[in-house]
Amino acid sequence: MFVCNRLNVSKQFYCRAAKCAPPRLIWWPFKLIGERIMRARKTRHSRGIAAIELALTLPFILTILAFVTLLGSVMYKYEVATKATHDATRYLSSISKLAMKNPDQIAYHTAVARALIDTELSAISTAPYAPSVTILCGSTTSTLCDGFTLPSTVTVTIRLKVANQLLPEFTSAWLGSDIVLTASATMAYLGV
How many Å apart are CA 54 and CA 61, to the nearest integer? Predict the structure, then answer.
């Protein structure tokens, strides 16, 4: 039979027999210190790896973010231009036949349609370029609203040039220095 004797000297145990092992409670301070050192090494090592991964992936993430931001800005400007063309076309397609045959009145209504477009395009920044607005009355693509004939259709076209201001050195290789947007709307003339 193996018997272990305990001495209360510095909280250590000793055994007379080889098979008598000290209780686990004796080694817990050393075990905790060792685990803390290993955890600290692992977290420092993990922090270093995370910093390297961030440094490698951050340029790609920022590039994708820049493209998404630029694409969102271009799509918003295109939607505003499309709504402006639809509103101007709807306005011009509903004016009376008498006003459409009178050159003075058609000039006034065309100016109102252009003012409507300018008001709606003021929500977006088109600097440094001004938008190009074309208003056509008739079935052919070259008939301007002159006030001498009744058109069968009314077409309003807006051409916007959007400056590539977000990372232009980087994105101009794929998108060009300027992005050209064309919004067009055609409606049948419904004058009363």
Answer: 10
* Span 11-20, pLDDT tens digits: 444 444 445 5
State the Cα–Cα distance between residues 135 and 144, nearest whole angstrom: 7
- Compute CA distances 167 → 69, 131, 192, whole Å: 11, 23, 51
Position 131, amino acid = P
Whether this prediction's pTM lies above 0.85 is answered by: no
Percent share of the chain, pLDDT over 90: 26
Tell me whether residue 4 is exposed, middle or buried, using C-beta atoms within 10 angstroms of its C-beta: 0 to 12, 13 to 18, 19 or more: middle
Q: How far, in Å, are 34, 40, 72 from residue 89 at the CA level?
A: 79, 70, 26
Helix, strand or coil, per DSSP, at residue 106 = helix
Amino acid identity, residue 90?
R
